[in-house]
Amino acid sequence: MRRLKIAILNLLRNGRRSVLTVSIVAIVVMALMTSGGFGLYTYQSLKEGAARSEGHLVFARPGYFSSDEEFPLQNGLDNADELRKRLLADQGVNAVQPRIYLQGLISNGEKSNIFLGQGILASEFRVKGPFLNITEGDILSKDEKVNDPQIMLGKDLARNLSVKPGDYVTLMSTTVNGALNALDFKVKGIFGTGVPDMDKRQVYTSINAAQFLLDSHRVSTLTLYGYDLEDTEFLRDKLGQLVPQLEISTWEDHAFIYKGVKNLYDRIFGLMGIIMSMVIFVSLFNTLMMSVTERTREIGTLSAMGASKAELLVGFMLEALVLAVVGAIVGIILGGLVSVGLMIFDVTMPPPPGKTVGYPLTVYFSTNLAWMISVVIVAICVFSSFLAARKGVNKPITEALVYV
Amino acid sequence: MLQLTHIEKTYTTGEIQLQALRDVNLHIQAGMMVALCGPSGSGKSTLLNICGLLNQDYFGEVRFAGELLMRDYRQAMEIRRTHLGFVFQKFNLVPVMTAFENVAYPLLLNGLKAVEVKRCVMAMLDHVGLIKFAHYRPDRLSGGQQQRVAIARALVHQPKLVIADEPTASLDSETAEQIVALMKSLGREKETAFIVASHDDRMTLHCDKVIHLKDGVIQLEENLCAA
Ligand SMILES: Nc1ncnc2c1ncn2[C@@H]1O[C@H](COP(=O)(O)OP(=O)(O)OP(=O)(O)O)[C@@H](O)[C@H]1O
Ligand SMILES: [Mg+2]
């Protein structure tokens, strides 16, 4: 306590310099907090996005994920309904959605284009929430008639074929037997995904219509949604025992954007952290060096009286500790204000590469991150002060005493 | 108590070698007040630094209370902490500490308990007549008051020897007189030996022994019977 008081008084001796140093620490902590908080937000939203579109777990026939199919649904699941019921029986399971991935040609009678399609249940829209931006028309209806199948088109594809809701398009694809099959669909809705490549190719149909087109009873995969993303591993292990004949992948296996961005950001923020740490190190070193030099005679006096070098070092390190802790606290508060400020005032970020829509700039306030940054920064400050003070403390006493 | 035998000290600055002390022999007995006189550059400070165990880079032998100094930093530090006190020309009080805290410092270094510290410091401040100023920082004290705090600090842990290099040089003559008288009375009371370097002739009047130094050589040792 006494030492702390002395340290604070010593810092107040050159108040302006101390304020400056605290400011530098605070700014660095704030910068790291906000950039880190932005990173965390980005990770979280990409993670959620990936989990939402890919499902928490995907069940497929072994080999489905690793090998290409020679004909449609070659590696599909046969008894999807029965498997689905079995999985749904588990309490931790929110929904299980069969999906069929298909491709082929889409035509308006005059012009054809390639499509990539997904056959889904109408409940997919409820389970996933609003994952598409419906620009015209509506989503697939639950009570689709067998002889009047419905389809949803990406907006660029719809424009290319000049169709609008109510018009008809023909899908052509090879069946499981290798024959060519065609089926007319009524355009139910048009959507934008925010990803130009998908808007140009993507279509959604019902599972039934897709099976009819491909002439198969199989589905490609069963996509499972739990309640909490964090329980994914647990669910996988539990359900794996229920359906040992299936191969299971998690959302993470399909979250290429998430992994890519995380990889990149981790490096960027890591590098930034290192640079910021160096700034802190140099700045603290400089401050402590000045104050050690100014107090050379005092160091000499106290050493003459029998104070050990460690005792004196601790005094200076305590000063650095006070600067660092105060700076970190101020920085965390500033970082918190930035997060709150961004919640109140919307700032929209430009669309990321491969996307057409921007997203709101959000910075998470993470206590874990705050702790981590503070501990590292404080450690750097104390270490830097140790190096700066060591030189002053090791000066011969007789020299220190006559220092002016 | 402090015994110096055949002390030689050479300063080397670049090419130049300067012999600051030549074959100095000195014995300071307990409770004795010794003045060190001599012109500027005669080696007074150099000798005091060796007596105060601040400089270990010399030839010859120094014994403190019979113990031979091994030129070991720790050993010297322990002795300084427990048995030595220092008074400086520029007072050298710690500016952020109050008079009380300055005087308490040596006791805290020696690991005394807070209650003990308080008792000793207050008694000591009373001795130097500054009890009212216990909670003043040095910048609010006059030069004479600051030096009295410094003397209290040098004596509070009951050292065997106090080293004072020009303790009155920064004070006016009247205050200087008081400071010298104070050192003398406290030294006698606590049986503390003093070794004081000074240009000031009046200083010598109060001392038991005066040593005249010139060009690093002891010219004369006078034993006085101080009144
Ligand atoms: N650190 C040093 N390096 C080189 N020479 C030194 C050093 N300290 C003192 N000297 C020299 O040693 C000699 C003795 O110096 P010292 O300081 O002991 O004299 P002094 O009697 O205390 O003088 P003053 O009355 O001016 O304080 C002087 O010639 C001085 O220039
Ligand atoms: Mg001198």
UniProtKB/TrEMBL annotation, chain A:
Q: Where is the MacB-like periplasmic core domain?
A: 18-225
| Native source organism of the sequence | Microbulbifer okhotskensis
Could you tell me which InterPro entries the record lists for this protein? ABC3_permease_C (IPR003838), Lipoprotein-release_system (IPR051447), MacB_PCD (IPR025857)
Q: Which UniProt keywords apply?
A: Cell membrane, Membrane, Transmembrane, Transmembrane helix
Q: What is its main location?
A: membrane
Q: Which GO terms describe its biological process?
A: lipoprotein localization to outer membrane
Domain ABC3 transporter permease C-terminal per the UniProt entry, residue ranges = 271-396
UniProt-recorded name of the protein? ABC transporter permease
Automatic annotation (TrEMBL), chain B:
From the UniProt record, which GO molecular function terms apply?
A: ATP binding; ATP hydrolysis activity; transmembrane transporter activity
Which Gene3D superfamilies does the UniProt entry name for this protein? P-loop containing nucleotide triphosphate hydrolases
Q: Which GO terms describe its biological process?
A: lipoprotein localization to outer membrane; protein localization to outer membrane
Keyword annotations for this protein?
ATP-binding, Nucleotide-binding, Transport
Q: Which residues form a coiled coil?
A: none
All residue ranges annotated as the ABC transporter domain in the record:
2-227
Q: Where is the signal peptide?
A: none
Q: What is this protein called?
A: ABC transporter ATP-binding protein
